[in-house]
Amino acid sequence: MEILVAQTAAIGQLGGELIARQLRSKPDSILGLATGSTPIPFYKEWISLVGRGELSFARARSFNLDEYAGLPRAHSQSYWTFMQENLLRHIDLRVSATEIPNGEAADLQAECVRYDRTLESAGGIDWQLLGIGHNGHIGFNEPGPSLTAGTHVVELAEETRQANSRFFDSLDDVPRQAITVGMGTILKAREIVLVAQGEGKAEIVAQALTGPVMTELPASFLQLHAKVTVVLDEAAASKLPASLLGSTREAELL
Ligand SMILES: O=P(O)(O)OC[C@H]1O[C@](O)(CO)[C@@H](O)[C@@H]1O
After folding, report:
1. Would you call 137 a catalytic residue per the annotation?
2. What is the pLDDT of residues 206-243, one digit of tens each?
């Protein structure tokens, strides 16, 4: 695992370097994309690199991690809308090459099977971008007594609904279920980039990267993956033990 610590304002630039490196080595990469506030600096930088002609997604494909169940795709808080507004409509990734779970499907279980089949026939994820929830979720794989390998319907944890209620008019408006790719899909990605910013994530980041690997903290399973890059701002890195920070590079990509 490699941990890169950057100033908050430099996180986006680092995200640009990381995706450029991936797409240079494999222009037809299968990218796993995330939503939430965490990836926004990455996406802003990707948009400006594409705008300047320094990056192209033209041969890539993308699969999003998750989507709320029962929220119309056109709803302002659906992850479909988030992706259009924050990335997809601004870059040259083909519309037909982007996949987001369909939270409006009449049969959500069938949609999960379809999503897994599509992902598998594409060859799996080459490069997976992840944020981390305050409770240690990745995608919407919530803490619990067990984890699920494939794409599945999940009951959202109360703390997740509360954290995400900032985007809705009220807590009651936050969906109770979501579709998420499973832990197996995430851990099979050939490379994973986990991003966290802000003091509010410092404790969970430290536990996930240094504590026991356990289903009660899904992000802790990233310790078992062979190729993980963790991108943190100084605040999110502030509770990591000095021994681990000693082995970090001060964002030397920049
Ligand atoms: O980035 P945020 O808004 O803190 O959310 C944490 C994580 O929860 C999710 O929104 C759930 O999928 C992730 O996409 C995100 O990285």
Report:
1. yes
2. 999 999 999 999 999 999 999 999 999 999 999 998 87
Q: Which pair of tokens denotes residue 172?
A: 């009651």
DSSP code string of 109-153: HHHHHHHHHHHHHHT--SEEEE---TTS-BTTB--SS---SS-EE
Residue from 37, 71, 80, 183 whose mutation best tests the ligand 1 pocket (most atoms within 8 A of CB):
37
Interface pTM, i.e. ipTM: 0.92
Q: Does any ligand 1 atom lie closer than 6 A to the CB of residue 136? A: no
Residue 142 designated active-site: yes
In whole angstroms, what is the distance from residue 226 CA to residue 102 CA? Answer: 31
What residues does each domain of the chain span? 2-245
Report the alpha-carbon distance of residue 148 to residue 126 in Å, rounded.
20
Tell me how far the alpha carbon of residue 132 lies from the centroid of ligand 1, in angstroms. Answer: 6
Q: Which residue has the tokens 């507004």?
A: 85
164 noted as active-site residue? no
pLDDT at 35 over 70: yes
Beta strands in the chain (DSSP E): 2-6, 30-33, 61-64, 66-68, 98-99, 127-130, 152-155, 177-180, 191-196, 228-233
> Catalytic residue among 17, 99, 134, 135, which?
135
- Let me know if 45 is a catalytic residue: no
By DSSP bridging, strand 30-33 and strand 66-68 are unpaired
Query: What fold does the segment set 2-245 form as a domain?
Result: Rossmann fold (3.40.50)
